[in-house]
Amino acid sequence: MTSQYPFYCAGEWRSSDNALEVRNPYSDELVGTTSYATANDLEDATQAAIAAFEEMRRMPTYERANILFELSKALEARRDEVAALMTAEAGKPINDSGVEVDRGVFTLRVAAEEAQRIHGEQIPLDLMASSAGRFGVTRRVPIGPIAGISPFNFPLNLALHKVAPAIASGNTIVLKPPSYDPLTMLVFAELVAEAGLPAGAVSIMPMDRTLGDTLVTDDRYKMLSFTGSPDVGWDMKARAGRKKVVLELGGNAGVIIDKDADLDFAAQRVLVGAFAYAGQVCISVQRVYIHSDVFDAFAERVVAAAKSVVMGDPADPKTTLGPMIDDKAVSRIHGWVESARDAGANILTGGEPNGRFYLPTVITNAPDDSAVCAREAFAPIVNLFSFDDWDEGLGRIDDSVYGLQAGVFTASLEHALRAWDRLEVGGVIINDIPTYRIDHMPYGGVKDSGLSREGLRYAIEDMTEPRLAVFNRL
Residue 412: exposed, middle, or buried by beta-carbon count in 10 A (0-12, 13-18, 19+)? Predict the structure, then answer.
């Protein structure tokens, strides 16, 4: 028997006549049913967020921190339940789902700690004779209601990267979870309902695209935080008006392998980076540039690693590669791979669909402008390229409209520092894959990969603004 999941609106549990069925990407079985919020629901949530903001911005720091600590404990207590639900509705392998819940617990705990570290500064103003006797003090104040839109690939933790810093900074938030897998955050809403927040401080509601677009254009929201595709994100920014906009938009992450790198370690890490969650990760490894002296040896290792991947039921702990999110995603990536093959690319392994799975795929000789290289694949594929000179390899990684993170495997400090200096990305990960992330670090990209940074402290900076007081010692 499947379950009905109401949504959480303005401190109330609600449903509508517009049902949303959530199905398991692996089995197509019905996981649960919720419903899309109506325009009236969203208006109620918006007005409640505005009203609750007056309470949230005056709430003492210790209360906000305690609420976040209690939310982290409550989520930890339901770890296995939430992980199983995430696997059922998102098709994420159960071990990966468990890790995501653990990260969600960590995100909430760090948000609680960061709530206690929102500081201002004292500024000397007597730098001119006319300002003698004056000094300034700043503090950071919350900006107001926030609109959050989160993606399907990390249905819990990427949503918490919007909800947790909003609470920590004394703001309110209305969150639109993804339609593919909204149930995980609706379960988290049960924890929110018991946390002691003002009614309307957090609303979590599935919305169709038309209604969700209201979050973008409504000037009553002071910030839009969106994680998703570049085309959608930049269009939102163009229509968002005067509100702040934070965009995390993904990319086609590159890795560079130096001739002195540990090839066994690098190959195993590239395996994780390319194929985790079927490559449906915005920092999934998509392009690997390998020094020509070690290209063949590294390629052999990556192909062998790809063939070791275990595909199957994501609820089985032995599974390391689950299904893609839907049939359209499989069809799209297979079309891209076939186009690359027609253009002269070699498929060393994989390159074929298997129902809703796509076989782990390793490609060489793909043209730089082919979709599998130049666009975000969001699929379990990786392209291998050879280079002769370190600067050449760095230049080829940078030859992309994206710039989220890059991985650098080298035993040379000089080469590592040169990569950090030159690569136009949000983060350079030395001796690891660009898929690495821990949730308190500044995370985000440049170019088409986004705007501003997530990571609790950095999100709080966007969700607050400095307010100055000037004192004149008479």
Answer: middle
Q: Is 89 a catalytic residue?
A: no
Q: What is the pLDDT of residues 5-26, one digit of tens each?
A: 999 999 999 999 999 999 999 9
DSSP β-ladder status, 381-387 and 285-291 = parallel
User: Taking a C-beta distance cutoff of 8 angstroms, is the pair 273, 309 a contact?
Assistant: no
What local confidence, expressed as pLDDT, does residue 48 receive?
A: 98
Average pLDDT of the chain?
97
**Which candidate in 100, 114, 248, 454 is catalytic?**
248
Given a cut of 50, is residue 1 above it in pLDDT?
Answer: no
Helix ranges (H only) for 57-176 are 61-77, 79-90, 94-115, 157-168
CATH 3.40.605.10 domain span(s) along the chain:
3-249+449-470
pLDDT tens-place string over residues 87-128: 999 999 999 999 999 999 999 999 999 999 999 999 999 999
Pairing of strands 450-451, 244-248: antiparallel
Identify whether 373 is a catalytic site residue. no
Give domain 253-438's CATH architecture.
3-Layer(aba) Sandwich (3.40)
Question: Among the options 9, 282, 373, 376, which is catalytic?
Answer: 282
Distance of alpha carbon 423 from alpha carbon 331, whole angstroms: 33
Within the chain, which residue ranges are assigned CATH 3.40.309.10? Answer: 253-438
Domain 3-249+449-470 in CATH: superfamily? Aldehyde Dehydrogenase; Chain A, domain 1 (3.40.605.10)
What is the arithmetic mean of pLDDT over 314-328?
Answer: 97
Tokens, residue 291: 């020094």
